Amino acid sequence: MKIICIGRNYTKHIEELQNERPTEPVIFLKPDTAILPKNFPFFIPDFSSDIHHEVEILVKINRVGKHIDPKFAHKYYEEIGLGIDFTARDVQSKLKEKGLPWEKAKAFDGSAVIGEFLPKSSFNSLENISFELKNNGETVQAGNTSHMLWKIDELISYVSQYFTLKIGDIIFTGTPEGVAQVKTEDVLEGFIEGKKLFRIQVK
After folding, report:
1. How many domains does the chain have?
2. pLDDT surpasses 80 at 17
């Protein structure tokens, strides 16, 4: 399986990092070694002093697809989840300055939190899903899929033009504003429509 991540998919997050608004989805990948094992804490890596949380809606692919038409994209997933794309912001900033790829900042071991999944049939509309991240009980990020620049089906279609989607692949659909540094002993909890889908302790 592979993890496909979408960057810059929420306007306010683009603005908070002072990035340029993209004209098409920004894509990067994480290897399967980036997945944080369930019930494991997240350990801040030695190579960074500025790890940020980025909470994101996840989509789990359930069939093989290539060059998927947007009107058929809904057939390629049945579950919606929540996760965190941990980012070494200090490392990323240095790489961006040099025009280099982001993988060292985005794809390191443990950088992908994958919480529980919910049936997409449990939502009235996939374009109106509220989600949030709490740090030590306080909401630090809150988003809604209605604010995505590119919706879930559009992302699946776009990604499939470049990468064959396979069963078990997971798409991270982008983060809303509010990204911030995590610190030792922080407790991060993710919610979709009030349902807790993960709890992570930072070490």
Report:
1. 1
2. no
DSSP, collapsed to helix, strand or coil, labels residue 146 as: helix
Rounded to whole angstroms, how far apart are CA atoms 175 and 177?
7
Cβ contact 85:111 at 8 Å: yes
Residue 105, domain extent: 3-201
Is the confidence at residue 137, as pLDDT, over 90? yes
C-alpha torsion 83→170→162→174, nearest 10: -20
Q: How far apart are CA 28 and CA 41, in angstroms?
A: 24
Q: Which residues of 44-55 are buried (b: 16+ CB within 10 A; e: fewer)?
A: beeebebbbbbb
What pTM does this model have?
0.95
Domain CATH for 115: 3.90.850.10
pLDDT of residue 7: 87
Residues 145 and 126: beta-carbon distance below 8 Å: yes
Surface-to-core class of residue 186, CB atoms within 10 Å of its CB (0-12 exposed, 13-18 middle, 19+ buried): middle
Helix ranges, the chain (H): 11-16, 89-97, 103-106, 152-159
Over residues 198-203, mean pLDDT? 98
Cα separation, 183 vs 126, in Å, equals 33
